[in-house]
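User: Please go through the entry that follows and flag anything odd:
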Amino acid sequence: MSPKQIPMSSIDRAWLRMDTPENPMMICGILALDRSISINRLKRTLEERFLCFQRFRQRVVDDGDRAYWQDDPLFHLDNHLHEIALPGKADKAELQKLAGDLNSTSLDFRRPLWQMHYINDYEGGSAVIVRIHHCIADGISLVRVMLSLTDKTPEPKLKRVTTKPKVRHKTTSTLQRTLHRLVDSTYTATDQARLFIHSVRKEPSYPLKLATAAGGVAFDLIKLGLAPFEPKTDLKSPLSGRKQVSWGEPLDLDEVKACAKALGGTINDALLYATTGALQRHFAANKEPIPECGIRVAVPFNLRPLDQPIETLGNKFGMVLVTLPVEVQDPIMCFRQVQENMNRLKRSYQAQVTYSLLDLFGRGPDILERRALDLLSNKASAVLTNVPGPKHALYLAGSKLTQPMFWVPQSGSIGIGISIFSYAGTVQFGITVDKAIQANPEDIMKHFRESFQALSHAALAGRGAGVRKAG
């Protein structure tokens, strides 16, 4: 192995191999800005705060059995940052169309797997479309990386850095690497034994708790495997690989908080209800029978501490399957069911189970991962992300960030991605839909707001308090 090649982790390799023509494994984002910015200033910002992560200068080398990161000897920022203009009115419809086209187009695997497009004429301001392959890092990490490009004020102090930082590579023989692994494994085993003995001495019931946790993990693994496939609806169709993107006008975060508080729930519960109600309204508008047992969405569950700085990239999250009770028509009762489903998941090990499965699939043959992916993707109708963002407005290269949106990719046969992102006192929500699916993304965005308003009116009218007392 070349000393410049770094082995890719099994988790990251699992996401690399999920890439298909129908579902490119890209995390996509749009940053809408209130005015145009200098492309040179944007480049300087990327050089200082983005390219400090060596991964964004490395391309993927895949030899079939293993995958590696390797420095791109011909790396140049201009291969990844493109300045373009929107056609026609340069409005939201044109930006959504461009975002849909880019969302449908795979990245160039001959280069580092990321790309940005700077649009210099969007609705009197500008916008940046970002695409980064999922094998580089998970969505929460990449959102934090992107937000690290921004400042709290329009005029930060930037320092130019070299575009090719020197990276010191340590050359070791195969024997040395084997010995290092053996020593590391011995140390790890010793530490685990020491911690186990310490825990037993401190708390004699620790082995019982450990066994109980192991039983819980096994139970959740069996339950995940035996979960029925999703009901046949127009949300589950063979995919074309062409995507449509849309986003709605943001909700006021204080209104969402007030609604959740009146119902004795969380902001997340209220937003999951809004998603449930939006899909409920979609079925009604299309005159499609509503599934009697609800539908499920796959929700990424972060396993990385949020209070620690992002020093290394990579994927550190599991997936949980959340049931949305679209069959429950009453807003308050539907909210209660969403709340109960989420509380049950919080007590489960499903996120850890799916993370371990991805690690296992990344180490095994490609056909094993494909079959497992097909099995799991048949148990969800959409991917839903809900990421908390900054509480105050931010600035990118001197321009105010007015509306950020991010989408994670859908895997296997899933063709819908729904994103919720809080920013500066607002809740942003958007959707990406494969064009083969009979669902209008603009209508679903309108349904999202209508659904939340129905819940808010019912909660603030006093019905929520009555139901809470009754429960």
User: Anything to note?
Assistant: The mean pLDDT is 79. The chain has two domains: 5-147, 229-392+408-470.
